[in-house]
Amino acid sequence: MARGKNRLRFSKLYTWAGCLRPQSPLERQQSMSVGGPGFSRVVFCNNSAKHLQKPYRYKSNYVSTTKYNVVTFLPKALFEQFRRVANMYFLLAAILALTPVSPYSAASLIAPLVFVVGVSMCKEALEDWRRFIQDNEINNRKVKIHVGEGKFEKREWKKVKVGDIVKVEKDSFFPADLLMLSSGFPDGVCYVETMNLDGETNLKLKKSLERTVELDEDHEFATFEGKVRCEDPNSSLYTFIGNLEYHEEVLPVGPQQILLRDSKLRNTPFIYGVVIFSGHETKVMQNATDPPSKRSRIERKMDKIIYLLFLVLLFISVVGSIAFAVRTKFNMPDWWYLRPRDTDMYYDPNQAFLSGLLHLITAMILYGYLIPISLYVSIEVVKVLQARFINNDIQMYYPETDQPARARTSNLNEELGQIDTILSDKTGTLTCNQMEFIKCSIAGTAYGRGVTEVERATARRLGKDPRVLGDASIVEEGERSLGGDGSDVEMRPMSAKPHVKGFNLKDERLQDGHWMDQPNAEEIRMFLRILAVCHTAIPEVDEATGTITYEAESPDEASFVVAARELGFEFLRRNQSSVIVKEPGPNRVPVEREYNILNLLEFNSTRKRMSVVVRDESGQILLMCKGADSIIYDRLGRNGKQYWNATKAHLAKYGDAGLRTLALSYRKLEESEYEQWNATFTKAKTTIGPDRDELLDKASDMVEKDLILVGATAVEDKLQKGVPECIDRLAQAGLKIWVLTGDKQETAINIGFACSLLRQGMHQIIVGLETPEMRAIEENGDKNQIAKAARESITLQLATGNHQINLDTDDDNPHALIIDGKSLMYALEDGLKHELLNLATQCASVICCRVSPKQKAMITRLVKEGTGKATLGIGDGANDVGMIQEADIGVGISGVEGMQAVMASDFSIAQFRFLERLLIVHGHWCYKRIALMIVYFFYKNITFGLTLFYYEAFTTFSGQTAYNDWYTSLFNVFFTSLPVIALGVFEQDVSSRVCLQFPALYQQGPRNMFFTWSRILGWMANGVYSSLVAFFFTTAAVEIEAYRKDGQLAGIEELGAAMYTCVVWVVNVQVAMALSYFTWIQHVFIWGSIALWYVFLVAYGAINPTQSTTAYKVFVETLVDSPMYWFITILIPVVCVLPYAVYQAYQRMFHPMDHHLIQEIHYLQKHITDPDMYKQERTKAVEKTHQGVSSRVRASLSMELTKQRFYGDGHLQSTGEKQDSMPRHVDNRLESPLINGSLDKTPRNNFSYKV
Q: How far is Cα 650 from Cα 373, in angstroms, rounded to an integer?
C-alpha cells in the first residue's frame, strides 16, 4: 500500500537550483546531443540481461585497485626487477656462465640472481595481496537488487549489473552510479554525503524526477520498464547529461538525479535507483589512476652509478683483453711450458683476436664484483627493517583509534627525506570534520574564552602558557566592553556539563540563562533567535532517548542551531510553513513559539549570505540575515551600525585565531512593504529563462537593506590536534605546503587562516571565473564561446598575478594563490599550465578549492614534473587516491572517510601531526642512511674488485683469480654484509629530538647533499686508493719473507689469503670511521665480521684440499706464524683510512656541515653549560618561511612595532597590552641571521657556532 501524501515535503522548504530551476539554453542544447558522439550509452532499466549482448556489454561492478593479477604478476614483476641495470647485467652474466668462457661456475652466478629477484618479487606480491584483500571487502558488500516480480534480495556489490534496480537503505553506500527513481520521502528527495568524493561533510540534496516519485514500494517494480540514453563514462563528478524514456515520455536527467558510487545515503529511509555506470566505469573510478610503479630518486641515480661502473668494468676488461691478445700473439710462442703448438682457441697465437674476444667475456664476468648484486638485497633488507622502525614508533601511535604508523611499501623510505612540496587534502586531513561554536560578539561585547589550536600554537611560540589564555581573554574583553577595570564583570562559577558536539563556548555571562541579566539582554535574545530560526536544518528525534540531533546543509549551520539550543533557544521541529522554537518566556519559563516561514533567500558563493523572512506570533514580519561581514556591512542601515566598530575589531581577532566568522543582522518589515516585495520576488522565482537567477538576486537586494547589526559568530573548523605546530615545523624545515580541497572557496580560505597557511597582510591572488561577464557569456549557451572566454580570462589573471609578484619586492608581504576547480580546467591545459606553475611557485601558499579528484592528480603531476622535485600527497578519502598515487610519496590518513586512501598510499598515519616526525626524523635518517650505505657499498666493492684486476695485470691477464672461489662468494654475504646493514638501519647523525629542534637539517635531503656526484666519486676514489694500497703493500710484503719452514716464498695461496684479510679489515674499519652513532649491535657486527673471517679461514682450511683448494691450512701453517702478515694487517688498514680521517678533520674544522656543529655542541655539553647559546643556535636552525605559526607571530609583532613607530608607546598602552609582554628570546628568533637569508648564502653551514 502506498504511503499517505499528507506528510512533510522537505523539498518545499528550499529553492535549490537543481530542483526547481528550469533548464538554461546551454543545458537544453546539451540534452539534445544525447545519442551523438560521447553520448551513446543506452541502459535498459530493470532488464540487465540485455547488457550481456553486443553492443551493450558493459563492465561488471567488480573493482580492483591492485597492481597485479594472476596473469600479469609474473611479466610485470619481472619487468620491474629487470628495470634495474645491475639485475640486467647479472642476468647476462648468468647466461654467459653457462659457456666455457666463465671463470666461475654457473650456479654461483645464477643462484644469487634468483635469490635477489625472488625476494623482491615476494615482497611486491605481499604488498599487492593486502590491496586485494581490501578490494574483496568492498566487492562483497551487500545491497538489495530487484530479482523480478517485485522482490528484492541482497546480493554482493560485484554482482550488480547495469540496468539493475537497487534499493539502498539509510547509512549505506551506493554500489554504483545510480539514476534515482524515488525515495522514502513522498516528494522523492534524499540526502547524500559525498565525503569520499569531494571531502565535504555537508549533506547534498538529490531529487528524483516527478514522473518516478510514485515508485515507492517494492511491488511497483514488477512491471517497471524504461530506457536511459546518456553520456558515456567520464570523470566529471558534477555533470551528467541524459534522458529517461518512460511511458512514452522523454524526461531530461541531470546531475540532481544521479547518485554516485562511494557516496552515502543519509537521513533518508531508502531510495530506489537504476544502475547507469558500474565498476571501473563509475565516475569515482574514472577519477582513479592505475597504481603507479614508484622508484626513489636515489634508486634512479643508483642506476646511473651502475652505468658508470659498467663502463669502468668494460674499460678494464677491454684493456685486459687487448693486453692478453697482444701477449698471446707475440709472446705465447716463447712460453714453451704452455705448449704453444698444442692450444685451443682460448689462447691460440694464430687466432689472437678471437682469443682476446673470448677473454673479454671472461674478464667481464671476472670483474663483475665491481657491480654489487648483493647491494639490492642489502637495500631491501635495510628498507624492511627501517619500515619496522617506522611501524613501531610509539610517537606516531594514535591510541584513540589504536592506529600506528604503517610503511605500506618499503621501497621509498629514503624519498621521505627529500620532499620539497606537500600537497594536502583539507577535510579529514587537516581538520576533524567537526565544527564548534566557540566565540561570538553580541552588541559590541565579545563572549567566549575558548582557545583555538591556532591560539595555543601562537602562545607557545610567544613563550606563554596556553592554559591561561582562556581566563585572560574573557577578563580582557570584559574590561574593554565595559570600559572599566573589569570590576563590573561578575565571574560566576560555571556548572560542569558534558561536552556537546558542535558547542564549545565557555562564558558564564551567557550560559545557564545568565544572559538575561546582561545590560544588552534584548540584543542577545535577538541574536539567539536568529541562530534558532535562520537556517535550513532538519531536526531528528531519537525515539529511544528523546534527544534531538540536527542535520544541516553545512557543519557551520548545525553548530549554530546547537549553540542556540545550549543557550536556551531550542529548535524543536519544522512543518510545511513554519519552525517551532522553545525559548525563554517573560518569566524565564520556556515556551514554544512558532515562526511562519514566508520566504527563504538561500546562500550561494555569489551572495555570501542567507536570509529568511518570518512572521512571529505577534504578527510582526522580520527579515533575519547572516553572511560574510563585508557583505552585511554594505547592507546596514544608518541606525544599524551602532556596534560595527567593536564587532569589526572582534572579527579581526577571531580571524587571526583561525575562526570562521559570520555577521548576524535583522530588520522589521511593514505589511505593505512586504506584500509589494513578495510580489516581485514571486515573479522572479517563477520566471523561466536565463535571467531568472539575476532577477532573484535583484529581488533579494531589494529587501536585504537597512539591516541592524546584532553581532557575529566565530566557529572553529576543528583542526586535528597539533596541525598548526606541525605545519609550522614543516615550514621551518623548508617544505612548501599546498592545500587541494573539494570545499568552497570561503571554507578553504578559512582553513588556510586556521592552520596559518594564510595570515593577515598576505596578498591573496584569487583566480576564478565567477564574474558577471563570464555569467553573461554562459547564459548564451555557446560552448565554444564559453571556453574561449574562460581561457582568455584565466590567461589574463595568471599574467596579472605574475606581474603583481614581480612588482612587489617587499619580502614581508608574501602572496597566496587561491584558484578553483572551474578555473583549473583551463589553467591545466598545455598552453597555460606552466604559467600556473610559475605563479604558484612564487607564492608562499597555494590553495586549490572545488577541485575534482582527477584535478588533484593533475596538479600533483604538474608540480612533480614541472619543478623536478619530490612531492608528497596526503589525504584520507577516496577523492585523494589519484593525488596520493601520482605523488612521489603518498601518505594516507586512517581517519573517518574509509580506507581507500590508506590502501592506495605508500605510508599511512592516523593524524596529520605525525607527518612532522615521519619526514623530519625518519625521512632525514632514512635518506642519510641509504645514501651513506650505497656509496660505502660501492667503495668496498671497488676496493675488493680492483685487487682482482691488479692481480690479472700482475699475471699477464691470464684469467687466474687471486682469491679462492669461496672467498669471492662470501665477501658480500658474510664478511662485509652485516656492518653495512647495521649502518643502514641504526645510523643517526643526530637524535630524533635534535632533528625536531633543528628542522633546517632536513634540507640536506631535498638538496641531496649526501648523494651528489662529487660525494659518490669521492668514495669511489677512496676505493681505488684503498685497492692500490691493499694490493701493492701486500705483494711487496710477501716478496721479502719466507712463509714456510723449508724457506719457500709465498705462493698464490698466501698472497690471496693475506690480501683478502687486509681488504676485510680495511672495509670494516672504514665503516666504523663513517658511523656517527654506535650501539653494541654495530660493534658486534663490525668486529664480529672480522673475527668471522678468521674462524672461516681456519675451518675451511681444515677441509680436504680437494674442496678447500688454495685455502688448505693456509692460515694455521703459514700465515699465523708470519710477523709480516700481522704487520700488514695493521699497517694497511691504517694507511687506507688515513686520508678519510684527515679529510673529516679538515672538514669539521674549516668547513663544518650542520650536523657536525650540532654533534660537537652536544659532545661538549654546550646545551647544558651554555643554554643561551644553544637556544640562539636553535633559533637559526629554521628556513625562512611565510607559512606557519612562526610567520604569523613574526608578522603580528612586526605590525605592532610598525604601529609603535608611527603612533608612539601610547598605541600599545591603548590596546591594553604591555610593552614588555614580548619575551626577549622571540626578538632574537625573529632577527636571526638564518631567517634573514644566510642559509641561502652558506647552504652547508646554517649555524654560526664553531668549536
A: 66
DSSP conformation class of 717: E
**Predicted confidence (pLDDT) per residue in 369-378, tens digit:** 777 777 877 8
Among 807, 1203, 971, residue whose Cα is nearest residue 374? 971
Does the structure show a pLDDT above 50 at 97? yes
Binding residues: 425-427, 557, 603, 626, 660, 741-743, 850, 856, 876, 879-880
The radius of gyration computed from the CA coordinates of the chain, to the nearest angstrom, equals 37
Per-residue pLDDT at 1220: 35
Query: Are the C-beta atoms of 479 and 485 separated by less than 8 Å?
Result: yes
CB-based burial label for 38 (10 Å; 0-12, 13-18, 19+) = exposed
Residue 1208, C-alpha cell as written in the block: 608612539
Instruction: Choose among 845, 802, 781, 852: nearest CA to 823.
Output: 852
How far is the C-alpha of 1066 from the C-alpha of 1064, rounded, in Å? 6
Contacts of 193 (CB under 8 A, 6+ apart): 201, 203, 204, 263, 264, 265, 266
Q: Which residues contact 718 (CB under 8 A, 6 or more apart)?
A: 431, 432, 434, 435, 436, 453
Report how far residue 302's alpha carbon sits from residue 181's, in angstroms, rounded to the nearest whole number.
Answer: 58
User: With contact defined as beta carbons under 8 Å apart, do 401 and 910 qualify?
Assistant: yes
SS3 sequence of 20-57: HCCCCHHHHHHHCCCCCCCCCEEEEECCHHHHHCCCCC
- Contacting residues for 367 by C-beta, under 8 A, at least 6 apart: 313, 316, 317, 945, 948, 949
Q: Model confidence at 36, in pLDDT bands (50, 70, 90)?
A: low
In angstroms, the CA 920 to CA 727 distance is 12
Amino acid at 680: T
> Residue type for 487, please?
S
Candidates 128, 262, 425, 507; catalytic one: 425
Is the predicted pLDDT of residue 1130 greater than 90, yes or no?
yes
Residue 1014 C-alpha cell reads as: 662529487
The domains of the chain are located at 298-370, 372-430+722-762+844-1154, 434-465+500-716
Residue 49 neighbours by CB under 8 Å, 6+ apart: none
pLDDT at residue number 1118 = 85
Interhelix angle 1013-1038/1052-1074, rounded to 10 degrees, is 140
pLDDT interval class at 1167 (50, 70, 90)? low
Average pLDDT over residues 578-582: 92
| CATH node for 372-430+722-762+844-1154 | 3.40.50.1000
| Residues 789, 774 contacting (CB under 8 angstroms) | yes
539 φ/ψ angles, rounded to the nearest 5 degrees: -80, 140
Known binding residues for ATP are 425-427, 557, 603, 626, 660, 741-743, 850, 856, 879-880
The closest of 4, 48, 46, 11 to 214, measured between CA atoms, is: 4
pLDDT at 404: 92
Do residues 157 and 144 touch, judged by C-beta distance below 8 A? no
Is the previous residue joined to 252 through a cis bond, with omega within 30 degrees of 0? no
Summarize pLDDT for 782-824 with one digit per residue, the tens: 778 888 888 999 999 999 998 888 887 665 678 899 998 888 9
Superfamily for domain range 434-465+500-716? Calcium-transporting ATPase, cytoplasmic domain N (3.40.1110.10)
DSSP reduced 3-state for 1073? helix
End-to-end alpha carbon distance in the chain: 89
pLDDT in tens, 1070-1107: 999 999 999 999 999 999 999 999 999 999 999 988 88
User: If we measure between CA atoms, which residue out of 419, 313, 361 comes closest to residue 860?
Assistant: 419
Is 811 considered catalytic here? no
| Residue 840 confidence (pLDDT) | 92
